[in-house]
Design brief:
mainly alpha; 70% helix
Length: 257
């Protein structure tokens, strides 16, 4: 934009003349652009929109990481912006997520019923928000992300939908999608044998599903469950399950980690 170019040119001229105005661009951004971004976050941004979320993340990263040099002032402005993002996500989880529960026998088994279709739509909508929240993993602190995505959304809503579903390939597919959203950096430590604490409910659901699948026509799906456990570094649980059910052919999957 013209104002941006003008300030950059002014800074260059000032630098040549030995001036000390190199921080003026950051000061302008901190006082005008970031407060506008905060308003956008609060009043316009829809956290359920992936395109809006990725665009917002790109702009936040560019402004916060590339154009911020006034350390003390940036710290407060940045914290205010990040707080507004966390607050808006929390509101979206509380207001926009709803997982209905129906009796399995009468509704869930009939995939063509309106109730079943509605429950499916609500699950995938919640999972989309889950994915969008975790796109912030390089800007928001891990503690805030885990509270929003894992404690408030996965453990309170998505798990309920998974528990209410019939064991089979569809459930395994959903679990794979949940695991695919999780930031890889959470599991990069090679010494990890236990997963992120907030994933304990998800891990227990995976183990219950593997147990039911091992006794059904979908027993081949058990390998996919073990792979998910390995991916999220629930290695102790994966090893115990493989030992308990004598699944020797899956031991190599765990040892490859």
């Amino acid at each position: 934009m013209p104002w941006f170019t003008s300030i950059e040119e002014f800074m260059e001229d000032s630098k040549k003349e030995g001036g000390s105005d190199k921080k003026i661009l950051s000061a302008v951004i901190n006082k005008t652009i970031i407060p506008q971004l905060s308003d956008f976050v609060e009043f316009i941004w829809d956290p359920l929109s992936t395109s809006q979320t990725t665009s917002l993340i790109t702009h936040c990263r560019m402004i916060l990481e590339e154009h911020s040099t006034c350390e003390n002032e940036v710290s407060k402005v940045k914290q205010d912006l990040l707080k507004s993002i966390v607050s808006r996500i929390k509101k979206a989880v509380e207001d926009d997520v709803f997982i209905p529960l129906y009796p399995k026998s009468s509704v869930v088994e009939d995939k063509t019923s309106p109730h079943s279709k509605f429950q499916e739509r609500q699950f995938w909508s919640g999972l989309k928000l889950f994915s969008n929240i975790l796109l912030w993993n390089e800007l928001l602190p891990d503690e805030a992300l885990r509270e929003l995505a894992l404690e408030k959304l996965l453990n309170r809503y998505l798990i309920i939908a998974l528990l209410n579903a019939l064991p089979g390939p569809e459930v395994v597919k959903k679990c794979n999608q949940v695991a695919a959203c999780l930031p890889e950096k959470w599991f990069e430590n090679p010494a990890m044998n236990t997963s992120v604490p907030q994933l304990e409910n998800f891990i227990q659901f995976l183990l219950q599903s593997a147990h039911k699948l091992s006794k059904s026509e979908f027993r081949n799906e058990v390998k996919d469950i073990i792979l998910i456990l390995v991916k999220i570094k629930a290695l102790n649980q994966a090893e115990s399950f493989v030992e308990k059910y004598h699944l020797d052919h899956l031991k190599s999957v765990i040892k490859e980690v």
